[in-house]
Amino acid sequence: MVMEERSWISDLPGQVEMVEVSPRDGLQIIEKFVPTGKKVELINALIGAGIRRMEVTSFVHPKFVPQLKDATDVVKSIERRDCVCMAMVPNLKGAERAVEAGVDMLDIVVSASESHNRSNVRRSVDESLEGFVPIFALAEEADVQVRASLATAFGCPFEGDVPVSQVLRVCHRLQDLSVMEIALCDTTGMANPVQVSKVVKACKHEIPDIQWAAHFHNTRGAGSANLLAALTEGITVFDASIAGLGGCPFAPGATGNVPTEDMVHMLHEMGIETGIDLPALISTAQLAEEIIGETLPGQVMKAGRTCDLHPSPALAE
Amino acid sequence: MVMEERSWISDLPGQVEMVEVSPRDGLQIIEKFVPTGKKVELINALIGAGIRRMEVTSFVHPKFVPQLKDATDVVKSIERRDCVCMAMVPNLKGAERAVEAGVDMLDIVVSASESHNRSNVRRSVDESLEGFVPIFALAEEADVQVRASLATAFGCPFEGDVPVSQVLRVCHRLQDLSVMEIALCDTTGMANPVQVSKVVKACKHEIPDIQWAAHFHNTRGAGSANLLAALTEGITVFDASIAGLGGCPFAPGATGNVPTEDMVHMLHEMGIETGIDLPALISTAQLAEEIIGETLPGQVMKAGRTCDLHPSPALAE
Fold first, then answer.
1. Between chains, do A269 and B304 touch, taking CB under 8 Å as contact?
2. With an 8 Å Cβ cutoff, are A206 and B1 in contact?
3. A277: domain range?
4. Of A9, A218, A252, the CB nearest to B194
5. Rounded distance, CA A108 to CA A127, Å?
6. Is A171 a catalytic residue?
7. I need a surface site. Which of A33, A119, A202, A302 has the fewest CB within 10 A?
8. What does each C-alpha distance from A67 to A30, A60, A74, A119 come to in angstroms?
9. Burial of A209 (0-12, 13-18, 19+ CB in 10 A)
10. Are B306 and A118 in contact (CB < 8 Å)?
11. Tens digit of pLDDT for each residue in A158-167?
């Protein structure tokens, strides 16, 4: 067999970083309050499996997200080892609480679309961007890094298409603020692989001197395809949620973030390293199901790894 | 923005054919017998939504797959319109029954791995290939086409890796028999996108004068990524199952074929035509859930299409 032709698989990265977001993006959408001790148990298991960056909570006002009212306790209780402890902060007040609790990295959030930003944080995109200035000042003083999650980067549930120019405008402003990383977020699972390729290519072309991450939801069954598309465009940092913990506020019954263990399994099978102990991660996905008390969307924890073979009934005869 | 660089999205096909396999690959694994009338209702709805080829049943011995014991009745009862009526046939006896019932296309099945073929049809790969000779003779006489489903083309649940050379050996033999199409089947969801790209590239390179199809299972959450990988290598025929109806014999709780409506949604969003009426297909996915009486894996039927927007709570204030 001769295969001289160059294709997308020739240029794949050898290693990617998985950013676990289940304790924030997953738990904030589960109706019931998961006790702090259970959150800590889940987070510690994830760190034990080799997760090296995790969004452990959000310092949002408890009135809006009571599920995460124990943000400070969670940060103070987990065994961090060498895992970067990241927390979402919606405003300066949240950032102050996060720094006080002792996080390593702040995750600021702004939407590419006006109506989603207003719905999410009750201010305009420009007001959000202006509000970030004191957060960056605080972060510099406290010596913590800041990454930005750019919501609705691939479509808005209220407005539909979000022009790439709008995504780039916000990214340029974030770059001016010296953000460490921008995560392009498919907040409600509206992305498709062609669009992902185009948006990522445009972002990397326009703003090459920044770390780009991607955050996909499997709301419409295209999560792994979108991740693959981003990977082929050179993205090497991916958000994901263990067992697919989470959901979609607009679609009861729909799934949320791509399941971490399924993406790690796929990446490992593709020959891409993550530094994660997959069997330990699969056990942690099962732990997540136990803690939530529901069947969660992750597949590999049900099917086993590709390398987990079965006895042949034919040979047994 | 300038984007001169050529990438995989430049070469995507403009149109693909979806082959619906739920009435066979989906229903054969559901434990209960779905009444013939309900099968016919589902098949007719799928044809109404624009499916133009469907594996409507299997003419396997009822002792092995009692769920499909009504194969002849199903074929005779459906309203075919312009849909190609395909049926799986495990042997000459099945092919004779299928032709007598009046199908348009036979789907013969052989595994790339010995142990899976023995487990599936109780004979060696070579015995299966020899057994196809009279089936092709019958098909020619009856003027029906023959396509082949090559099981375990991306891995075997008993043997693990299946060398590409082994896949090619069987494909060459099928080509010698004048098969119309070979579907590379990821029978138990073991494929990954890099492997899909390599196997498809090798097959198309070695045997260019045949129609290639691909059949993916979402058993480990990589179904849409594998379909994307096959698409980038020029595959334009994909098997899928409405609502993700089906499962995996080795993993209770794991999903089966990729959901037709989710893949059609993704393809349409990518600008690729399928000729299918997506809203009608989504309604059919909901019908499949009603008929089976269980929540099925398809996502778009729960989340709605990307273009189904929501009222903005911020603007409503």
1. no
2. yes
3. 7-316
4. A9
5. 13
6. no
7. A33
8. 8, 10, 12, 19
9. exposed
10. no
11. 999 999 999 9
A111 in any annotated domain:
yes
Return left, alpha or beta for A102; rule: phi > 0 is left, psi -120 to 50 is alpha, else beta: left
The Cα B296–Cα B255 span in angstroms is 9
Output the six-digit token pair for B94.
């099945």
Active-site annotation holder among A85, A171, A185, A248: A248
The CATH number of whichever domain residue A43 belongs to comes to 3.20.20.70
A152: tokens are 């609705």
A74 found inside a domain: yes
How many domains does chain B contain in total? 1
**One-letter identity of residue A217:** H
**B2 belongs to a structural domain:** no
Query: What is the rounded CA–CA span in Å between residue B139 and residue A152?
Result: 53
**Alpha carbon of A159: minimum distance to chain B alpha carbons (Å):** 7
pLDDT digits (tens, 9 = 90+) for A43-64: 999 999 999 999 999 999 999 9
Contact yes or no for A221/A258 (Cβ under 8 A): no
Decide: A217 and A258 in contact? Cβ < 8 Å: yes
- Its sign, for the CA torsion B259, B262, B264, B270, is negative
Alpha-carbon distance of B195 to A249, in angstroms, equals: 36
Residue B288 lies in a domain: yes
**Model confidence, pTM:** 0.97
Q: Which residue of the set B83, B85, B156, B248 is catalytic?
A: B248
Alpha carbons A61 and A53: distance in angstroms, whole number: 23
pLDDT tens readout for residues A183-222 = 999 999 999 999 999 999 999 999 999 999 999 999 999 9
Instruction: Round to the nearest angstrom and report the end-to-end CA distance of chain B.
Output: 37
